[in-house]
Every structure is written in structure tokens, then in C-alpha cells.
Amino acid sequence: MSSTEPSALLSHLYHTDGSATFAQNGYTVIGAVNGPIEVQRRDELPEEAAVDVIVRPAAGVGGTRERHLESILQSTLRQIILIQNFPRTLIQVTLQITSTPESESAGSKLVQASSNLAILPTLLQTAVLTLLSASMPLSMTLTSVLLALDSKGNSRNIVQNPSPVQLQSATSIHVLGFTSRGELLVAESEGSFTMEDWDEVFETGKALCCGGEDVIDGEAMEGVALDKEKGDMSMFVKSVLEHKIENDLHWKD
After folding, report:
1. Is the dihedral of CA 206, 208, 212, 213 positive or negative?
2. Separation CA 188–CA 69 (nearest Å)
3. Between 61 and 93, the higher pLDDT residue
4. Is 47 a residue whose pLDDT tops 70?
5. In terms of pLDDT, which residue wins out, 105 or 31?
6. d(CA 43, CA 102)
7. CA-CA-CA-CA torsion sign (164, 211, 128, 81)
8. What single string gives the DSSP state of each residue in 132-164?
9. 157 and 149 in contact (C-beta within 8 Å)?
């Protein structure tokens, strides 16, 4: 079984301005960023930087699935990078998927989830860590989470970082991304759900990304089974950066 616990490594690739490897829920993605660099005249924007995102699959050549993920990532990163600081330049982010979770029903064979959303939080988190590794000027950071909702009548079961089998049996799948200010920036959903379902998914996702015991009240959690991990994603990102700074400054000791 793959671990749902996140792990990260920063600035481990050479010949890039920033790099990061992030793994969670069976997915591992290596990210690299270069920029601001010279941009081709046809892609040049007079008042801001162009952001190019490339997603490469674990095997084979990228197709429609990767193009869809790239469009979501590009629009998201443009909102957190201070692109106005670098007009007529290019910021290029490359994300290489190196491993995907094993299907419990397929033995050791690697399979792709039927939903494109399953890997989106890992891609988003890798991209943000890569930008932080490059000391790219950002207006805010971003944390994201994958949730599966199994709704049966008045009973709602929300699972964080679901397995491929749980994704197939879920009523709906949700990817939520929150900024460091607690604002919703990414909301991608698939499946059937009501507004009441969405409200509970939103509150649960915000608590997991931003933390805080007071984010979810008792009524919102009623009837919801949640896989809680130690801390939240925002604290995880902070701890990764603190660890990198400690390693960079160890020579002073």
C-alpha cells in the first residue's frame, strides 16, 4: 500500500533555477523551473511574464490528459507568481511524473486513475515547492488536497487522499487549493453532488490545507468520517522550507 504521508526534497537538480520532488498518496513528481528567461517573440507579453507548464507522464508520450492538467496548472501559477515584475520574459515549469499508485486489483501493474484529478494536488504542490526553491517572487503560496465523497442519503463520508479503488466507488471527487491567506484558488470536481455536499467538502478541505480547529464546526463534521494527519499542508510546506534553510546555513555552526 502506498503511503498518504507527504514527503519533499528541494533544490536537488543541477542546471535549473529551482527544483523539487514531492510524493504523496502513491504519486511522485519531480519539478524544475527556469526563469525568467528569454521568450520567443510570438509568445512575448509586453507587461508580464509568460508562464509555460509542461507535464510529462511516467510512461509514454503526453496526450489530452496532460494538456488538461497543464491548463489548470498554468492558470493557477499565473495567479500566485508576480508576473508583472518580469515583462517580456518566460517562466518555464516542467513536471515529470515518476511513479503512480498501484491498483489493489491489478497486482504490481501501474495504472492510471480514471480521473485526471487524482494527481492534480501532487502536481500543484510540486510546482509551488519548485518555485519556492528558485526563490521566485510570489504573491502567496498554495496548498491543495484531494477528497473523495461517498454520499448515501443523509450519510456523508469524506476521505482524504483516497486510493484508486476508493476513487472508483466515490460519488464525487474534489481537488481544492487554498492560498496562504485562506482563500479558495483551485476548485475542480467530478461526479454528482449537492450544494450541501459541496459545503462540507469545502470546509473539510480548508481545514486540511490551512489548519485550525475552528475552521470546521461541529455541525459541518456531523456524519463525516475524515482521515486526519498530523498538522496540515501549510505546516508541512513551512517545515520543508525550514529544513532546507537549516541545511543551507549549517556551515555557520
Report:
1. positive
2. 11
3. 93
4. yes
5. 31
6. 39
7. positive
8. HHTT--BS--EEEEEEEEEEETTEEEEEES--H
9. yes
Among 168, 130, 128, 172, residue whose Cα is nearest residue 150? 172
Residue found under cell 472508483: 168
Taking 80 as the threshold, does the pLDDT of residue 77 lie above it? yes
Helices 233-248/195-210 angle, 10° precision: 20
Query: Residue 253's CB: how many other CB atoms inside 10 A?
Result: 5
> 204-225 burial string, b = 16+ CB within 10 Å, else e?
bbbbbbbeeeebbeeeeeeebe
pLDDT at residue 228, as a whole number: 41
Rg (CA), the chain: 19
Residue 95: strand pairing partners:
31, 55
For residue 221, the surrounding DSSP H or E stretch is helix 218-221
Q: How many helices (H) and strands (E) does the chain have?
A: 6, 9
> What are the pLDDT digits (tens) for 152-198?
767 789 999 998 888 888 999 999 999 999 999 999 999 999 999 99
